[in-house]
Amino acid sequence: MESVTKSKGFTYFIESLWYNNATFSMVLGICSALAVTTNMRNALVMGLSVTGVLIISSTVLSAIRSMIPERVRLITFMLIISTFVIMADFLLKVYLPTISKALGPYVGLIITNCILMGRAEAFAIKHAVWHSLLDSAGSGLGYLGSIMVIATIRELLGSGSLFGLRILGSWWQGWGLLMMPAGAFFILGFYIMTANIIQKRFMNRCK
Amino acid sequence: MKKLPEELRMSIFLIVLTTICTVSLTAGNLMYMRVLAEQEREMRMDILKGFGVSFTKDTFDSIFKEFVEVRKESTGTYYFYEGSPRLVSVITEGSGLWSIIEIFFSINLDTFRMQELKVISHGETPGLGGRIEEPWFAEQFEDLDVSKGVSLVAKTTGAPGEVDAISGASRTSEGVMAIINKAITTLQNSMNPK
What we know:
Number of helices of chain B: 4
Shape of chain B: extended
Number of helices of chain A: 10
Order of helices and strands of chain B: HHEEEEEHEEEH
Mean pLDDT of chain A: 88
Number of strands of chain A: 2
Largest interface: A-B, 31 and 28 residues
Number of domains of chain A: 1
Shape of chain A: globular
Strand content of chain B: 15-25%
Strand order of the largest sheet of chain B: 1-2-3-4-5-6
Radius of gyration of chain A: 18 Å
Number of strands of chain B: 8
Oligomer: heterodimer
Distance between the termini of chain B: 79 Å
Low-confidence stretches of chain A: none
């Protein structure tokens, strides 16, 4: 077990999952984090889509990294990422048509999500396939975790339910503000603050 | 082997990569279209079931062709059923406050009363405008006289076509009202051509 936690891949995974968390450390991918977090079901599907596309595109990019000419690498990233995003969009439309409609344009907009381009440029292009896979899995799960936390707070307080199931009694009127984009900013701000306090105060860096 | 000049290497790489991406996306799109056609067929089955016609999977296509006339208008798709009573089902969409709202409803053409209404999809604020998906909202439309359209009002006075709007979501209510009324106007115009 010790050898696992000390391995390089594990360090990369934890780095991108926690210390360089996309949402609260790097503040990337915020647009979708605000837009899809009105309920947990949408957030889960969106988070899984981002994670899936991120892992696949990082792995593929890392595998062909020696072939990519330096000057056209950004075009290459875009082509590969957008191909997988459109595939993910097809899959959602076929298997989860209602959620796909509720997510609206945000699945297609994963193409412009900074997390994907960021991980491709900062990591996948320079590291081995296995390490890129772990790094992108960490980033994706970090994003998924963050939007799930925000969605839980917003859905529970905003409409008194979790995953569409009513949790709070009918006495809970629903805090409408949290359902609005403005409310998302408040929750996001508190989330980033709390996560940074925890990160700085209670955790020692494992480097 | 002599190394290729960089420009040539770049061009070849991009051409190959683009070809691979395009081919895989085309393949994905073909499969997606097939599933989409299947979904459309299932939706038509639901509509035929809603008209009270019995059919099996094999007889569906011929029965649908015989009894139902499909008309695509600018406001949506209309499925006319020439039986007794004469019915029409409409799938229409329009904008609410934030999002496109898709609505299904059917009208009895003999009495011009609405039979049922369903909000198929929307992206309105959950807890406010999003309450249009709750059953109580749709149930208000059952057996509603819609010959003069519908009006979503704060307090019903008993006039024909009135239903309760959603408090705290006037823009969504107005959107829903406009979507339904536009579809009904188009329907009336197509039935009584000038």
